Amino acid sequence: MEKDRKRVVILGGGVAGSVVARSLQFHARVTLVDSKEYFEIPWANLRSMVEPSFAERTLINHRDYLTNADIVTSEAVNITETEVLTADGRRIGYDYLVIATGRADSVPKTRSERLNQFNEENRKIKSARSILIIGGGPTGVELAGEIAVDFPDKKVILVHKGSRLLEFIGAKAGHKALKWLKSKNVVVKLDQRVNLNGFTDGQKIYRTSIGETIEADCHFLCMGKPLSTAWLKETVLENDLDSQGRIKVDEKLRVNGRGNIFAIGDITNIPEIKQGFLAQQQAEVVVNNLKVIIHGARECKMETYKPHSAIAIVSLGRKEAVAQLPFWTITGRIPGFIKSGDLFVGRTRRQMGLSYDIVKA
Q: Which residues contact 197 (CB under 8 A, 6 or more apart)?
């Protein structure tokens, strides 16, 4: 009977939380708590800025893949030993809790509003003759590549505070990305910051930390976003965070010392590069482990999550990419064939039980 089923509450409807919710919806009473009504394929959103119609496939309403679960469009603001409290005043009881809140990011509540946002960003790019990108991590590099390939007539300037691009992976990958960007006439300035204090829309002159001036019609801020865990400091998990605000988990992805609370994705202290496909793999481990517990199997049937070595693919436009693999780093069409064509959108939609066809807002 429905009332006898275990209650699983998932906080966060990103790449990890959505997988858990979809996979468990027929095994438990599932409630997904997310501040927005849709799931977004995050590694595809830069393509959506240069080609807004691409977002029709990458923004998926939670209800499209959750046919047997409750969806609460709000934010969790507190956790007790038995309940989750939300910003809209709800108290949601749980038997098992999965925290997958990812990084703090301000995005619209509805899918249609997010589609409009991509259209606005596209208009901003199209109307500009010169574009400044601030940040040389994977987001900044991929955006610069997308614009340089789709709009080769525009001047693109990328400013990065570090001494090399893509500091989250090896130096060789950063060097190859720099070489590729320069081949597309992207101007790259390293070891500099852009001062945005007091900056107002409409200004076209930017100043850097070493006194340089840059003229650009618009800018895009591509900096890392903070973890969405600060709110946990006022909850029963206040002692389960490390000094960087990450949740300490065991090899089964349970919060250390707790048998019924799991954490996955960027917010954990797992020693590996934080990437979407790894968050999905963690989600699959948690799904298995919760099924084991829910169905009364022995704990020895639970899976262990093993951290992965550094593997990353950063798109460079529509056909090329730079890839860091365990023993070598390559750039060009081969890694581009793996990722850059449709950015794994088709595969992700199939994982969510959906067709690749465009879904209208």
A: none
How far apart are alpha carbons 11 and 239 in whole angstroms?
A: 19
Q: What is the pLDDT of residues 22-74, one digit of tens each?
A: 999 999 999 999 999 999 999 999 999 999 999 999 999 999 999 999 999 99
DSSP secondary structure string for all residues of 224-282: PPPBTTGGGGGSTTGGGB-TTSPBPB-TTSBBTT-SSEEE-GGGB--SS---HHHHHHH
**CATH code of 151's domain:** 3.50.50.60
> If you average pLDDT over every residue of the chain, what do you get?
93
| Alpha-carbon span 125 to 134, nearest angstrom | 15
Q: What Å distances lie between residue 220 and 163, 196, 203, 247, 361, CA to CA? A: 20, 11, 14, 30, 26
pTM above 0.90, yes or no: yes
Are 91 and 235 within one domain? yes
DSSP state of 299: G
Average pLDDT for residues 148-167, to the nearest whole number?
97
The whole-number pLDDT of residue 191 equals 98
Burial of 345 per CB tally in 10 Å (0-12, 13-18, 19+)? middle
Q: In which domain, by residue range, is 258 found? A: 2-35+74-105+225-307
Last-in-domain residue among 267, 286, 307: 307
Total number of domains constituting the chain: 2
Query: What is the torsional sign of CA 24, 28, 32, 33?
Result: negative
